[in-house]
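User: I've been trying to design a sequence by hand for this structure and keep getting stuck. Would you show me what you'd pick, starting by listing the structure so we're on the same page?

Assistant: Good idea, let's start from the same input. This is the structure you sent:
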């Protein structure tokens, strides 16, 4: 029997895609398909590489007053018996800080977090869940992904779906001491997946609801935050006034506090206004607030018994808003249209059709008035109450035409900035597009192409949520070209850097927009992108449907580049399903189109993929011819990593043919080329092929030496869906050494991984390997059971290679009877 053969994703011009199962089954002779082999060949336990501890807490709040009792109550959580002691029950420590909007819950939680962070040496995680924001809610699955990445879990180790990510998060934090702050949570349901499973961690939650479910079920410690007392309110006012005003009357300060309902958010806004006008008597300010209260029609209240607080906050907002200059007021209300609560100064400039310099001046003025918060260099964010107020003012004061024009500008800014970021990242496999034009006042981001695309990628990662929301908004208001073009320009950034399900909803919205607009080119591109995402998720039937539809549409349009791309994508999908004849047809079509285009990179890459297909069906002479040609083309094209991959495949051909010396020499050459180009993935592939060659020569000790080197690189790169193939190979090496227990363990791991992905071809071959190891272990009954399942799975495949595999399994079964 053969070991797993691992195929690459088949898309040229980019690093192979994470999140893809390339575990294509092998044929006789121990083949490895070079490409996307990631995920460790682990010989003992999986350990994550060390990285700087996350330190995500926002800055501490200035002018913080009192809250002594609340802080004391929170500190009581630290007095529990330390983790690992007999008295410690292992119950997770959770603090829930609850109170009305604007009462200072976040300020209290952040102040406490800064006081106790030294007790959590493995870092601090923070997320604002925006549970009460007028925009779309934060997706818990995405939060888990960010937390896992912050804890140094490689992207490719992060599974899709909320439950698998929550399980991995609990595993990763099990032996760590991490402080986790979950700000502005609306429900206990969105909190539970974000909870670690160990009492060594501590979770601080802020919410307007009482979170009774968490208190009862998880034993959370609830701390209520009431409005400030009169004395505390006056103290806060005097703290902000310090250095600006003196001699204010105590009774007037108390009246000012009453008009603000003694809520810190309102008090800070009013105090900042008074501090900026040190000669303005407080009685005049109080009179203004009273007049505003009479004019202001309160928005809907936040809950029973909170009418006074809600009215007071909105009265303060209105009073502060009315004192803004016309330019600042317009900027404030237009920001309510922004796709998310956090934004760059350049996005604000696009909204307001102004320059970046002027936009920064407006934003700084709004931040000084506590109507915005700075959250990084040239970056600002709304409090959810203030964002809701800005949205309301936009509806009141901007015409529908003005609102739409502002949205067109900012969505266009995101589209063109995303295209620039993708271009800086050298994503050459993205389809050519004529972007929807933008207003002359819009200045999209530009990125230095001398930093290997790092600035563009950093911009994308910061703006990911805004970009996804931008697709939704563009589709909702009929900007259909913008809606489908945003994910289209980001095709390879998304494929290279995101779990496949991150953008899937937005990509489906993009397809709806392209269909609604009757844009056939946009429809084809979006279908192709959906095909890549579905293939990464190993939803092969859906991927095939998408690629086939894209291919037909590109053919109708006469778009040669699109035909080549979709045909290649469909071919790779067929390879994943072990439909090699169909894959060969697709690769031949893609290669024909690449030759017509005269694109050397694609010609070399598709020639390699065709060689991969012939290798899969045991046509070694044809595979050798194609792979040798591919390696030469890619060398001339100065594509060293693509060349190294072709050479690694060629080494497998030599090995399969029993030519072990040229197999070794070719793999060593691939290793050297990949090393010079700093291609860790391709180095590990060459090392793995050297290990395979040693296994084929029954040199197990040498094989394990190569595999251990490859394992270190695989773990660094990360690829759990491909760990199964490496585990299978390692099992064969251990069996050669007579270490049967270890061989069985590795084959079991491989089977489990393939079964979880419903990769039936690879599972069938792994089950056959497991049966061999079980026979050596003296477990003939289980060995027969594994062979029976392998045969059942193999009957679904009708090619000659599958027939040969069935014959091998049947022969092994007969030998045991």
């Amino acid at each position: 029997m053969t070991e797993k053969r691992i195929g690459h994703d088949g898309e040229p011009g980019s690093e192979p895609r994470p999140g893809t199962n390339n575990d294509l089954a092998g044929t006789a002779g121990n083949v490895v398909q070079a490409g996307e082999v990631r995920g460790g060949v682990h010989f003992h336990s999986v350990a994550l590489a060390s990285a700087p501890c996350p330190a995500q807490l926002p800055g501490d709040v200035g002018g913080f007053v009192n809250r002594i009792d609340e802080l004391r109550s929170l500190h009581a959580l630290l007095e529990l018996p330390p983790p690992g002691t007999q008295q410690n029950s292992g119950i997770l420590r959770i603090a829930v800080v609850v109170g009305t909007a604007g009462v200072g819950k976040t300020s209290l939680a952040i102040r406490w977090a800064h006081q106790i962070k030294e007790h959590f040496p493995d870092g601090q995680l923070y997320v604002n869940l925006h549970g009460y924001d007028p925009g779309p809610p934060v997706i818990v699955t995405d939060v888990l992904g960010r937390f896992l990445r912050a804890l140094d879990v490689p992207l490719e180790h992060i599974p899709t779906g909320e439950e698998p990510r929550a399980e991995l998060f609990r595993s990763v934090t099990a032996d760590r001491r991490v402080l986790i702050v979950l700000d502005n949570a609306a429900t206990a349901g969105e909190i539970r997946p974000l909870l670690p499973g160990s009492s060594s961690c501590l979770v601080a939650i802020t919410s307007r609801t009482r979170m009774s479910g968490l208190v009862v079920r998880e034993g959370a410690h609830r701390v209520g935050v009431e409005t400030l007392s009169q004395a505390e309110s006056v103290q806060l006012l005097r703290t902000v006034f310090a250095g600006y005003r003196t001699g204010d009357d105590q009774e007037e300060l108390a009246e000012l506090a009453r008009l603000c309902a003694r809520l810190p958010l309102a008090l800070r806004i009013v105090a900042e206004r008074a501090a900026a006008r040190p000669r303005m008597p407080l009685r005049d300010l109080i009179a203004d607030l009273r007049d505003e209260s009479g004019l202001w029609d309160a928005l809907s209240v936040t809950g029973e018994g909170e009418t006074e607080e809600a009215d007071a906050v909105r009265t303060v907002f209105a009073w502060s808003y009315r004192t803004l200059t016309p330019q600042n007021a317009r900027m404030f209300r237009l920001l309510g249209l922004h796709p998310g609560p956090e934004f760059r100064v350049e996005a604000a400039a696009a909204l307001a059709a102004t320059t970046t310099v002027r936009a920064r001046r407006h934003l700084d003025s709004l931040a000084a008035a506590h109507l915005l918060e700075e959250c990084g260099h040239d970056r600002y964010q709304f409090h959810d109450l203030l964002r809701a107020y800005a949205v309301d003012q936009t509806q009141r004061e901007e015409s529908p035409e003005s609102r739409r024009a502002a949205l067109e500008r900012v969505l266009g800014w995101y589209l063109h900035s995303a295209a620039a970021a993708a271009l800086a990242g050298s994503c050459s496999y993205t389809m050519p597009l004529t972007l929807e034009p933008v207003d002359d006042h819009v200045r999209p981001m530009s990125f230095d192409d001398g930093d290997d695309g790092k600035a563009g990628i950093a911009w994308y990662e910061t703006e990911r949520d805004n970009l996804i929301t931008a697709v939704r908004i563009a589709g909702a208001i009929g900007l259909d070209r913008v809606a489908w073009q945003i994910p289209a320009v980001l095709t390879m950034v998304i494929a290279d850097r995101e779990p496949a399900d991150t953008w899937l909803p937005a990509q489906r919205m993009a397809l709806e927009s392209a269909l609604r607009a009757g844009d056939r080119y946009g429809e084809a591109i979006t279908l192709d992108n959906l095909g890549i995402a579905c293939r990464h998720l190993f939803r092969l039937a859906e991927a095939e449907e998408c690629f086939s539809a894209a291919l037909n549409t590109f053919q109708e349009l006469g778009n040669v580049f699109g035909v080549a791309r979709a045909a290649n994508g469909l071919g790779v999908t067929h390879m994943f399903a072990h439909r090699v004849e169909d894959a060969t047809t697709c690769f031949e079509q893609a290669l024909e189109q690449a030759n017509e285009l005269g694109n050397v990179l694609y010609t070399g890459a598709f020639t390699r993929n065709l060689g991969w297909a012939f290798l899969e069906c045991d046509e070694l002479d044809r595979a050798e011819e194609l792979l040798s040609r591919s390696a030469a083309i890619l060398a001339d094209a100065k594509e060293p990593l693509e060349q190294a991959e072709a050479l690694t495949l060629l080494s497998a051909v030599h090995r399969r043919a029993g030519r072990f010396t040229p197999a070794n020499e070719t793999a060593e050459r691939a290793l050297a080329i990949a090393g010079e180009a700093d291609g860790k993935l391709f180095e590990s592939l060459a090392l793995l092929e050297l290990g395979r060659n040693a296994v084929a020569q029954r040199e197990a000790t040498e094989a394990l030496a190569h595999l251990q080197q490859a394992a270190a690189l695989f773990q660094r790169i990360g690829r759990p869906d491909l760990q199964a193939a490496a585990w299978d190979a390692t099992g064969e090496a251990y069996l050669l050494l007579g270490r049967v227990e270890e061989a069985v363990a590795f084959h079991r791991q491989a089977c489990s991984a393939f079964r979880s992905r419903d990769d039936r071809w690879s599972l069938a071959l792994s089950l056959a390997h497991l049966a061999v190891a079980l026979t050596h272990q003296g477990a003939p009954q289980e060995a027969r059971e594994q062979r029976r399942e392998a045969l059942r799975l193999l009957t679904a495949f009708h090619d000659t290679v599958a027939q040969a595999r069935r014959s091998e399994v049947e022969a092994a079964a007969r030998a045991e009877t």
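That's my pick for every position. To get oriented when you compare it with your attempt: The chain has a mean pLDDT of 85. The beta strands are 93-98, 124-128, 179-185, 202-207, 221-224, 342-344, 373-376, 379-381.
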